Automatic annotation (TrEMBL), chain A:
Belongs to the ferredoxin--NADP reductase type 1 family. NADP(+) binds at residues 189-192, 233-234, 245, 410. GO terms for cellular component: mitochondrion. Pathway: Steroid metabolism; cholesterol metabolism. The keyword DNA damage does not apply. Its cofactor is FAD. It holds the Pfam family Pyr_redox_2. Residues 44-202 form the FAD/NAD(P)-binding domain. FAD binds at residues 53, 74, 82, 118, 403, 410-412. This is NADPH:adrenodoxin oxidoreductase, mitochondrial. Keywords: FAD, Flavoprotein, Mitochondrion, NADP, Oxidoreductase. Its EC number is 1.18.1.6.
TrEMBL record, chain B:
SUPFAM superfamilies: 2Fe-2S ferredoxin-like. The lineage of its organism: Eukaryota, Metazoa, Chordata, Craniata, Vertebrata. Its cofactor is [2Fe-2S] cluster. Residues 7-111 form the 2Fe-2S ferredoxin-type domain. The keyword Metal-binding applies. Its main location: mitochondrion. It comes from Lepisosteus oculatus. Keywords: 2Fe-2S, Electron transport, Iron, Iron-sulfur, Metal-binding, Mitochondrion, Transport. One of its GO terms (cellular component) is mitochondrial matrix. One of its GO terms (molecular function) is electron transfer activity. InterPro entries: 2Fe-2S_ferredoxin-like_sf, 2Fe-2S_ferredoxin-type, Adrenodoxin-like, Adrenodoxin_Fe-S_BS, Beta-grasp_dom_sf. GO terms for biological process: electron transport chain; P450-containing electron transport chain. This is Ferredoxin 1.
Length: 497, 125
């Protein structure tokens, strides 16, 4: 940090460090509590990240507290996290949650500040000076790596990057995945794997009516991929996807399932006793594998030019490279043996190996949260912020919600429930006095000064709404719900117009 | 609308309180919750498009039997619902009719999944 900056911090901290209401008032800040109270001031809370966790935590806090102010900081100029950049373009109904989030953002005691990266533009320690509580809801921006030779070769991508590419995440706009081979292998059998498989196989006529980016649509239209293999390390009773997504795959226009009946032998009897969700999922899978399609479905499958299949009990051991080492041309899989049964079954690799020729390999074994600031405890082993009901362990005033709290699994409704839990913890701590509000906090006034010094100017929710309107207009011309902007500079320009 | 087009519904919220409202025949239970501004946190996140399970409701046994067939798509979403029971349905799929007048439906508690009650990250160093 250079000298002038150092001086600046000292000045700011002098003003706000002791958080005397007098000094804050002199800077234009007025306590908004109408009730004369010497004990408690308006609680000011900030949330880091504007995905479902951020918005649902904010919603619950605003609804259940009459004076609390919530400021949401987001790294990108645009809000909504994985609802915008994760949820598949052909699932627009899932994105309806955006309407509720927008209502929250319009709440008089809520503000959105986009284009602010916590950890680099402003530290968590400074946020703690500005707010009574800081809630970390920044999701999972990394991905689990395979840890096998050849992982970095061209032709191998993480699902996170691939999804980011077709969904218009600025950092992935130049991914240009190589779709020139016939077979693609996806590692992992969760819903993200199925999203990726569906996007690779869906007829372009369907995709072009979605908000998939124009450039990825072009690439997919020219794709040579005919077959997608979705590889799991465990067995058919352990697939991680859910039934709606599997049903969609089975019915996917232009594609047929290719499942090996041998993989499903003897499972019929076991299925009977499984809990309802697993039972229905397994029944559907078994039906697709064992029953010969009849009538219309038989015709449909016969006419399908593309196919997909599950491969079970296989773990990746090595990416096979072209003779000159320039790119991936296949993958070597270890044959596993299943030990135990049910959801907790585990595998041990055998000596057996199987090579699969494929020019596209997508690693979909999970996202991963990353630490953003040394001031926040982080459990590297589980890749979460260690917490108890959303209270960050050994860090009073810090809370967390969403994927960074629980790990990168769960649908939006799961994230909603855990965010409500975290909000409840914050409210309890306010009530009990554990969160000390006897001194006033400056909130955004303080942050604004810090950001100005850093040369960062935040995007307001109104700014986002300008970007939103421009995207929708651009989409209209192409007959799609929106055409996402891919360039942060362009977003910023529009937001400030 | 005439009085005979009104259907009385008693909701029991997550705190066990009973809330009685009147809806119009043909409206879904999700419509009723929204029209009457009933304050059930997180209810109806996908706005009735069968893309989530947040409008999950629990019915009385005999009422449940009258509700009419359930599609695979609704079953698929119910599979992900918290606190699923044998008489669970999604509120967005149930339309009011005179024969349902006076029914009581329960909003399930949002018991989040088990993983959450376990403290994350406290066991490792
Ligand atoms: C590919 C994919 C598809 C999915 N599809 C569905 C679906 O169809 N239905 C469903 O119910 N669930 C779906 N999910 C799950 C759902 O997206 C998650 O449950 C949910 O998004 C998690 O919310 P979150 O707020 O914790 O994280 P996120 O949604 O990731 O939000 C985190 C936010 O924090 C911001 N951020 C990160 N770092 C910083 C920083 N340093 N400073 C400031 N801000 C920061 C990010 O930019 C982001 O906006 C999907 C998940 C994935 C990965
Ligand atoms: N439409 C939707 O509702 C939708 C869409 C997308 C995502 N989501 C949700 O978002 C969450 C994240 O999805 P996800 O697909 O990334 O994660 P996921 O559901 O946890 O699936 C991860 C997959 O990777 C496998 N895997 C993990 N580690 C591995 C390893 N080291 N080697 C080999 N395989 C490994 C897992 O197998 P094991 O089971 O053996 O660990 C599993 O098959 C999920 O909760 C999902 O439901 C929902």
């Amino acid at each position: 940090m250079n000298e002038t900056k150092d001086c600046f911090w000292k000045r700011i901290l002098k003003i706000y460090g002791n958080t005397r209401i007098v000094s804050v008032c002199s800077l234009g800040y007025l306590g908004t509590r109408s009730v004369a109270s010497t004990a408690a001031h308006q609680p000011k809370v900030c949330i880091v990240g504007s995905g479902p966790a951020g918005f649902y935590t904010a919603q619950h806090l605003l609804k259940n507290h009459q004076s609390l102010q919530v400021d949401i900081y987001e790294k990108l100029p645009v809000p909504f996290g994985l609802v915008r950049f994760g949820v598949a373009p052909d699932h627009p109904e899932v994105k309806n949650v955006i309407n509720t989030f927008t209502q929250t953002a319009h709440h008089e005691r809520c503000s959105f500040y986009g284009n602010v990266t916590v950890g680099s533009d402003i530290t968590v320690d400074l946020l703690k000076r500005a707010y009574h509580a800081v809630i970390l809801s920044y999701g999972a921006e990394g991905n689990r790596s395979l840890g096998i030779p050849g992982e970095g070769l061209p032709g191998v991508y993480s699902a996170k990057d691939f999804v980011g590419w077709y969904n218009g995440l600025p950092e992935n706009k130049s991914l240009e995945p190589d779709l020139s081979s016939e077979t693609a292998v996806i590692l992992g059998q969760g819903n993200v794997a199925l999203d990726v498989a569906r996007i690779l196989l869906s007829p372009v006529e369907l995709l072009k009516k979605t908000d998939i980016t124009e450039s990825s649509l072009e690439a997919i239209a020219a794709s040579k991929i005919q077959r997608v293999l979705i590889v799991g390390r465990r067995g058919p009773l352990q697939v991680a996807c859910t039934i709606k997504e599997l049903r969609e795959m089975i019915k996917l226009p232009g594609s047929k399932p290719q499942l090996d009946p041998a993989d499903f032998e003897g499972l019929k009897d076991v299925i009977e006793d499984l809990p309802r969700p697993r039972k229905r999922l397994s029944e559907l899978l078994l039906k697709a594998a064992m029953e010969k399609p009849v009538g219309k479905e038989a015709e449909r499958q016969a006419a399908a030019s593309r196919c997909w299949g599950f491969k079970f009990l296989r773990s990746p051991v090595e990416i096979l490279a072209k003779a000159n080492g320039a790119r991936a041309v296949g993958i070597r899989l270890a044959v596993n043996r299943l030990e135990g049964s049910g959801d907790s079954a585990r595998v041990t690799p055998t000596e057996g190996r199987e090579d699969v020729n494929c020019g596209l390999i997508i690693n979909s074994i999970g996202y991963q949260s990353l630490p953003i600031d040394p001031a926040v405890p982080f459990d590297y082993k589980q890749a979460v912020i260690p917490n108890t009901m959303g209270r960050v362990n050994q860090a009073p005033g810090l809370y967390c919600s969403g994927w960074v709290k629980r790990g990168p699994t769960g649908v939006i409704a799961t994230t909603m429930n855990d965010s409500f839990d975290t909000a409840r913890s914050v409210l309890q701590d306010l009530e009990s006095g554990q969160l000390d509000t006897t001194s006033a906090k400056p909130g955004y006034v303080f942050v604004k000064a810090v950001l100005e010094q850093q040369g960062v100017s935040p995007v307001s929710f109104t700014g986002w709404e300008k970007i939103d309107a421009a995207e929708i207009m651009k989409g209209k011309e192409a007959g799609k719900p929106r055409e996402k902007l891919l360039d942060v500079a362009e977003m910023l320009k529009l937001a400030r117009a | 609308l005439r009085a005979e087009d009104k259907v009385t519904v008693h909701f029991v919220n997550r705190d066990g309180e009973k809330i009685t409202v009147q809806g119009n025949t043909g409206d879904s239970l999700l419509d009723v919750v929204i029209d009457k501004n009933l304050d059930f946190d997180g209810f109806g996140a996908c706005e009735g498009t069968l893309a989530c399970s947040t409008c999950h409701l629990i019915f009385e046994k005999d009422v449940y039997k009258q509700l009419g067939p359930i599609t695979d798509e609704e079953m698929d979403m119910l599979d992900l619902a918290y606190g699923l029971t044998d008489t669970s349905r999604l509120g967005c799929q149930i339309c009011l009719s005179k024969s349902l007048d006076g029914m009581t439906v329960k909003v399930p508690e949002s018991v989040s999944d088990v993983r959450q009650s376990v403290d994350v990250g406290t066991t490792t160093s």
